[in-house]
Design a protein that fits this description.
- The chain is α/β, with parallel strands linked by helices.
- It folds into 3 domains: about 150 residues, 3-Layer(aba) Sandwich (Rossmann fold), CATH 3.40.50.720; about 160 residues, 2-Layer Sandwich (Dihydrodipicolinate Reductase, domain 2), CATH 3.30.360.10; about 90 residues, Alpha-Beta Plaits, CATH 3.30.70.
- About 35% of the residues lie in helices and about 25% in strands.
- The protein is built from 14 helices and 17 strands.
- The longest helix has 21 residues.
- The chain is elongated.
- It binds L-homoserine (HSE).
- L-homoserine (HSE) binds next to helix 7.
């Protein structure tokens, strides 16, 4: 067949945890790929700031370069693999690769969360592919599922534990009663956290992944900036204990829903029933729960970070491009996510039930005032009680509200915070209505 080539050249830019994993995986599995797919994957070049880092991956020294441009312009490179993360020079690498007619495989959630539409547009115009399985959920093949296996559905809900660092922190706080800072230090030592762990603990990392999955699942533009973000810094062991008593587990969730009026996209700690599938996902593991109107509930579970799990997703993308290339064909374009631009709701127009933890100057008075103030804002109360185990001197109150608009709750919290009997509204946690996630599933 004309143009057919058995050897597919890949150039890898970034040889850190993930890039190093990709080199090691390809080098160790090369014979298997040859036998199974008839494809010889050749790591033609690897780029990093450090030749020692490159050498540690097993890459031959003559294949190393410190200049990414040499990879993009190398005629032997068919697929450029960008694994440096961040916006620059990753953006320039994408643009140069597309201009050179090369496909790009990436794990760069921060870049795609913000600029997927523009970059996918450039790739499409250049007739090449941009593939990003590793960018959301690490080794979990959920991008592929949304782009291919689930396309017969209207996707209704995507709810994910998309950040391993925060899931690890919450799991250990729950299991051991350990404090936030102590467990964060362990997460950094174990290599789960981003270089700047605020991206993990404040929800930015999960928001990028939520934006990406929502765009692909709902065929519309959702960027990281559209996603409401609240992290886990305020979660205390008191919240976790109170949640347990109520039958809930606290998870940092990325939640995206496609409703008739528009798209919901938010990342925040949420109380979910302890019996829900997502509640069982612990430590650094990730899971993405996807509801399609035909298939109903599905859940994808696996390692969301780490060298080989993420490399597994990257190499899957490489091989899916390599197969047609090896036959002398161009890879088929992925379904473009941006067929329509739908409104994404700001958080304050949404409704939820809430858990409030209020530390008091004087407990009985604070309880009375909280009930009064919530009633004045038309917020119903399911339960209100003191939290006996909590450590605050003046006492601590735990309130669970009925469903109420976010805007009303925010106004009530502001009023409560200024009340004499109240020391602080120490935390407000959304109680997720998980039944709503499956409401529009077709009857069998
Ligand atoms: N810091 C990220 C996490 C790594 O903790 O999940 C994978 O994106």
């Amino acid at each position: 067949m004309s143009g057919a080539k058995r050897t597919i050249g890949i150039g890898i830019i970034g040889l850190g945890t993930v890039g190093g994993g990709v080199v090691r995986l390809v080098l160790s599995h090369r014979d298997e790929y040859r036998a199974a797919y008839g494809i010889d994957l050749d790591v033609v070049r690897g780029c990093s700031r450090s030749s020692a880092q490159a050498e540690a991956t097993g890459l031959a020294p003559e294949r190393f370069t410190a200049d990414w441009r040499e990879i993009v312009s190398d005629p032997a490179v068919d697929i450029v693999v960008e694994l440096i993360g961040g916006e620059h020079p990753a953006t320039e690498i994408f643009e140069a690769a597309f201009a050179a007619g090369k496909h790009v495989v990436t794990a760069n959630k921060a870049l795609l969360g913000r600029h997927m539409e523009r970059l996918a547009g450039i790739a499409e115009a250049a007739g090449v592919q941009l593939k990003c399985e590793a960018a959301a959920g690490g080794g979990i093949p959920v991008v592929n599922a949304l782009e291919h296996a689930l396309t017969g559905n209207r996707i209704l809900t995507i709810a994910g534990i998309l950040n391993g660092t925060t899931n690890y922190i919450l799991s250990r706080m729950e299991r051991e009663g350990a404090g936030f800072e102590e467990v964060l230090a362990d997460a950094q030592r174990l290599g789960y956290a981003e270089a700047d762990p605020t991206a993990d603990v404040d929800g930015f990392d999960a928001a990028s992944k939520t934006a990406l999955l929502a765009s692909i699942g709902f065929h519309t533009r959702v960027t990281t900036d559209d996603v409401f973000q609240e992290g886990i810094r305020r979660i205390s062991t008191d919240d976790i204990a109170a949640a347990r008593e109520l039958g809930y587990t606290i998870k940092l969730l990325g939640i995206a829903r496609d409703t008739e009026a528009g798209i919901e996209a938010r990342v925040h700690p949420a109380m979910i029933p302890a019996t829900h599938q997502l509640a069982a996902v612990s430590d650094a593991m990730n899971a993405v729960y996807v509801v399609g109107d035909a298939v109903g509930e599905t859940m994808f579970y696996g390692a969301g970070a780490g060298s080989f799990p993420t490399a597994s997703a990257v190499v899957g993308d490489i091989l899916s491009l390599a197969e047609p290339l090896a036959r002398g064909e161009q890879p088929l374009p992925e379904p473009t996510p941006y067929r329509a631009v739908r409104p994404v709701f700001p958080i304050d127009v949404l409704e939820n039930s809430f858990f409030l933890r209020i530390t008091a100057n004087e407990e009985a008075g604070a309880l009375v005032r909280a009930v009064e103030i919530l009633a004045r804002h038309d917020i119903g109360i399911t339960s209100a009680r003191s939290l006996p185990g909590a450590e605050d001197e003046g006492g601590t109150i735990a309130i669970v509200t009925k469903r109420a608009p976010e805007r009303a709750l925010a106004a009530a919290v502001e009023e409560l915070s200024g009340d004499e009997a109240v020391r602080e509204v120490a935390n407000v946690i959304r109680i997720e209505d998980v039944d709503a996630w499956t409401q529009e599933v077709e009857e069998n």
